[in-house]
Amino acid sequence: xxxxxxxxxxxxxxxxxxxxxxxxxxxxxxxxxxxxxxxxxxxxxxxxxxxxxxxxxxxxxxxxxxxxxxxxxxxxxxxxxxxxxxxxxxxxxxxxxxxxxxxxxxxxxxxxxxxxxxxxxxxxxxxxxxxxxxxxxxxxxxxxxxxxxxxxxxxxxxxxxxxxxxxxxxxxxxxxxxxxxxxxxxxxxxxxxxxxxxxxxxxxxxxxxxxxxxxxxxxxxxxxxxxxxxxxxxxxxxxxxxxxxxxxxxxxxxxxxxxxxxxxxxxxxxxxxxxxxxxxxxxxxxxxxxxxxxxxxxxxxxxxxxxxxxxxxxxxxxxxxxxxxxxxxxxxxxxxxxxxxxxxxxxxxxxxxxxxxxxxxxxxxxxxxxxxxxxxxxxxxxxxxxxxxxxxxxxxxxxxxxxxxxxxxxxxxxxxxxxxxxxxxxxxxxxxxxxxxxxxxxxxxxxxxxxxxxxxxxxxxxxxxxxxxxxxxxxxxxxxxxxxxxxxxxxxxxxxxxxxxxxxxxxxxxxxxxxx
Amino acid sequence: xxxxxxxxxxxxxxxxxxxxxxxxxxxxxxxxxxxxxxxxxxxxxxxxxxxxxxxxxxxxxxxxxxxxxxxxxxxxxxxxxxxxxxxxxxxxxxxxxxxxxxxxxxxxxxxxxxxxxxxxxxxxxxxxxxxxxxxxxxxxxxxxxxxxxxxxxxxxxxxxxxxxxxxxxxxxxxxxxxxxxxxxxxxxxxxxxxxxxxxxxxxxxxxxxxxxxxxxxxxxxxxxxxxxxxxxxxx
Lengths: 516, 235
Hints:
- Chain A is mainly α.
- Chain A has 21 helices and no strands.
- Residues 1-5 and 256-261 of chain A have low confidence and may be disordered.
- Chain B is of the alpha/beta class.
- In chain B, strands 1, 2, 3, 4, 5, 6, 7, 8, 9, 10 and 11 form an eleven-stranded mixed sheet that branches.
């Protein structure tokens, strides 16, 4: 009886089980601690505000990203690659630093209000819902652009050449090539941003707050830090878990595949359409660049004078942060690759593997942090495990994004070269070495960069665990700010930005180089 | 000796049976209307499409449990026969050692195979820089290096012009002749079958018929073949 079943691979299954334990353990602990489940009106208001700001942030980010990604995909100009790399910066910025940049431009005494006042117009306030939306779009628009741009680049150049040879105009190209791709890519991109904003913390802490603009995540923080009411924090964490789980379920259900077939890796340059579309593309690129780069410029301008004043503790914290980021990124990418490859090959139990990879989406930094805190506190001093716990939480939280970045290309590799690899007996390490890693180098490099940057800028779980001299760089920035040492804080923030961006750039560049 | 022992393939309303044998060294064309299951038959032998019942045997041994790469055969697909990110030499090297840790002798064998199929000097090129004919030659060179006793061709030359295709078929005959390999070649062109194959397997109406001598088959075409060839084929 000749029947070869799906490959059984124990490695990915064990990995997924460990991941499941890492995520589910804190959740169970939190649930056990939650005690009475009583929602007061202000909790319901937090839920409503959370959902509203996350939906609007996702819709606006994705809506604005499409014209920008299209313009970047079909135009070639000097500095294009540099701009694409730079456009990634706001997403990689530690949220606190991004908020400082936005305040410098849109804040009470920011550049924009100065201009408005000079023109005799009323000034605007950045605080409240629109400030939260502004910051979320600022932080997530680049992510949306990058995801959608990758979608464009996943259409082989040969398809565009075929379209050109058939005399397709821009609307036919949109109909037959671009819209099917967008339909496959946009829901995922939007939901990812929705989930990010659902659990966003630093932005809401700074620009939101008060009864009208408090999210569930912020309410958890307040319950832990101000009231030290762990029962109420656990109850709110369960609510947050419910919200995230529904959103994560949608992300999971919306996974679609586009098959554009294989290209021959020819590098073809297809001229974009002329006429007014040329100008529209130029305007989209310019507007996006200004919106994203001006606040970054403000961070640099305010940080440079502060660099001279940073205390030594900043440099040891920076070293600690870099180590945490490198270890987290390496772990995230390895786990994401192993799981994505097994899912793409539809190995046995691939549904479980996929669920494990996206499960962390159903949590948040403060939910996991609170749970882990409750777990370790009776056994060891939380202080002594602050860095390992930070690495674990950062790995878990970055995994769904990196997994989803890698998965489509992993599926393409299996679809295009699975049979060829099998027929040559390529398996195990040689298959990774000669087929999977070279074909996936680009998304892997990008994914590692994202994981490293998210980790180095994370200010969540560390606030619960660290004290004294165990802090990471974002924590030190926060402490300096809290102590009103604003010059030193600005300098440390600039250092943090440089490290975050430098790590990302190194990884992304490495990936692009390896795939060439 | 390839033996298909009451093999049944089925999937979503598609069904194909095959119950016959083919001798080593024989050149067999697989023809029939599109959608009849020619490629599925090859996929089943190559290990990509498990039969619902029956056995695929080579020299009496059931190879149904073997992974595709462990089967005594090489396959040339319709397309994607080469990894675009690897050089021609690396693509060929994979045929000898999947980990590409080639010894000096093995590297020399790769070079010899490249020369043998007329690609001398192109070993460092990437597939995107090759013409269709050159890519076909490179894939054949890898089959030559693997030297497996069966060679399955799933219309890899369908996109080539008649002269180039004839050239490639001659090269296939040469490569297969070297190692005495059994060749199974899917084609939709009866001329290919007549020019290249000693025997023909007709796939139609849910059955992959036993191989019949080529001249004999075209001299006395059964109804299914007559229907496939159409009026032009009967002249």
